[in-house]
Each structure stands twice: as structure tokens, then as C-alpha cells.
Amino acid sequence: MGAVTPLGMGMEQSWQGLCAGQSGVDWVTKFDTTGFRTRVAGQVKGFRAEDFLSEKMARRTDRFQHLALAAVDMALADANFKVTASLCERVGVSIGTTGGGLETTVHGQTMFMNGGRNEVTPFFVPMFLTYMASGQVSMRYGAKGPSLCSTTGCAAGTHALGDALRAIQHGEADVMLAGGAEAPIVPIILHSLGAIGASTARADDPKKASRPFDAHRDGFVPAEGAAALILEELGFALRRGARIYGEVIGYAATADAYHVTAPAPGGEGAVRCMRLALQDAGIGPSEIDYVNAHGTSTKLNDATETQAIKTVFGEHARAIPVSSNKSMLGHSLGASGAMEAVFTLLTMNHGIVPPTINLDTPDPECDLDYVPNVARKATVRTAISNSFGFGGINCVLVFRRLD
Fold first, then answer.
1. 154, 273, 366, 395: which one is catalytic?
2. What are the two backbone dihedrals, phi and then psi, of residue 305, each rounded to the nearest 5 degrees?
3. Is residue 385 a contact partner of residue 238, using CB atoms and an 8 Å limit?
4. Residue from 19, 294, 366, 395 carrying the catalytic annotation
5. DSSP letter, residue 60
6. Residue 331 designated active-site
7. Reduced to 3 states, what is the DSSP secondary structure of residue 72?
8. Catalytic residue among 19, 273, 331, 395
9. pLDDT tens-digit readout, 183-233
10. First-last CA distance in the chain
């Protein structure tokens, strides 16, 4: 696994920050946010594309592709796996994103409209295309199996992992390089998320802006980053002696068919999705030890997700730790599900549940165990990770330790 997040370069640095309850949210420094509702974001600090790519390649690719390539590079090193000529046709790619090359799109359009048409890069098209993170990963490592891209908003990273799982289950690949990448911190996106009231208006302490399940939450914190996981068919992994963090045992995707931004009442679509994922895993609700919540810090999402968890798990819901990584990372849209998959697996391996920070005033509608403010030791053998997106998109993965 590999990750590039607002908490650090690499999976381990990010994990240590999560366990310490640190926030990666800060004031936006890339452009002037005067007059914006939202002026904070989860930015990846100190990232240099040239540390992973040649200067020439870095100029010809967008930041979201840089982040994706870095995360996959880290994951392959962590897996001690190389795509060889004998394996390449059985190795695929599946990378999710919401907006693709947003920095390229905004910069190119600005140049074009201001009379600098000849200064727009000739690589504009492959730089902005959403599926080109998968394409660039495929070309960089020589992966000739399925090349897939999910663009399902906040669920894209989770859908990408689910698609990777299905490709392996259906015999289309033995290994999938899967994850999500997003670089959405550009003026028009930050302004627009604020204009529809989705993102926070908090303007005192950036570290306090993302506060899932807290009574004073007022919207999510936009963020950037990437995460990648090397998914392998179990027999293949065992034969090569791979270190295995866990097993993906269940996956489901549903739609609310209800509203462009609001979740269905009672979390009906989320309920069906969690139940179908458990059914796909062949386990019952009582076997889940942890829920990595979507937990965006919006009024509707957090209350609806809470209600959905209680519907699915019944009395067992009171005994399950539920926490939101977004309280510390912000919401990296299409990358968030992949990041949360990485941290769910680390939770299982380390026996530590990261906290939900900034949970200072409990909301009566959000009355589960959200592991407030301080990480907790716990035995987690089986866990689920939830992702829900605009348009009523729901996606759930189930993970199990391979003891």
C-alpha cells in the first residue's frame, strides 16, 4: 500500500499522524480566497513530482497524475512487486478520481481566454482526462491487463477498488494496481463547493474545521492526495510469499435515485449497500469489529450515515467503534475511499482505531461510538469502509485479516 496525504508523504507518516490525532488541514495558500465561503483545505505539503518522475514527464502530466504515480510507486515498493514481461498481461490498473486534471483545465482555460492560445500545452488533453491516471500508471509499469477508471465522485476510490476486486474474481487479472487520486484545490472548485453549502465556512482555526458527527459541524474540508493498494489473487500472493495486510471479502454498490446532493431519508441506499456488501462477504453484521465511516462533517451525511449504521447493525451498532479519517485528512473526494481502505487495513494490522478529532459537542442525532479525539487499542479482525457521493452513489468494502 502507498499514500500521499495532507498528513505526510507515505503511508506510515500519514498513519502516525492519524493515530496521534493530528490535523492536516490548513489555510489555502495556493491562491487568494478572499470572499470564499471555504478558505481551508487539506493540502499535500512538500510534494515534488520530480522526486518520482523526470522533469520532462512532470511537465506533461497533471498534479492528480503525479499523486497517483507516487502512491502506486510506494505501494509497489511496499509489496516488493515488479511487473515483469511474463506477468504484464495479468496485471491491470484501476484508479478513481472525481475531476481528473483540474489544475490543467483551469490553467489552460485561463491562458486560452486571455489570448495565450499558443501557450497552452499541446499535452492539455492527456493531462486533463480523468482516466489518464490509470493510463499513465499502466504505461509507467507496463501493466497490460484491464485499465479502468471510476469517476463516481466521493465514492470513486472505493469503486476503483471494487472494480479491481471484480476483475480478479472474474479471472481477468491476477494483480490490480488500484486506488484513487485527486487534486481539486483550484479556485472554481473551492468556490463552488462553498456556494452550494457543501464545504465549511469555519474561519477561526483550520485544524478545527473538519468535525464529523459534532453538533457544530458545518460542511466538509476539501482535500487532495492519493492512495494505492496492490490487490492480488490470494493463490498468486501466497505463491510469491507476499506480505498480506488483509483480504477484500465483500463489495457492493447501490444508488439512492433520490437527490443530486442529499442522501435518501434514513440512508436507505446506504443501508442496502452495507447489507449487500456483508452478503457478498458471507458474514453477518455481528462479525464487524470496526466501521471506517464516510464521515464528511456535513449535517445530512453524518446523521444519515449514523441512522444507516444503526439500521444495519441493530444493537451491535452500539458496540462497534466508528471513526472518520476525514476529521484529520479532509475530504479528498475520489481519493478518499482508497485512503480509507489503506487506513482500515492498518487499523486491523496494528490493533489501533484512529480517532474522530474535533468531536467536542456530541450531536444527539449522532449517538454511536465515534472514538472521540483519542486513538484506541482494539482487536479488529473484520471491518467495513463506507463511501457515499453526490447523486446518491453508495459504495462499501469489507476487509478481513488473513490470520
1. 154
2. -65, -40
3. no
4. 294
5. T
6. yes
7. helix
8. 331
9. 999 999 999 999 999 999 998 999 999 999 999 999 999 999 999 999 999
10. 19
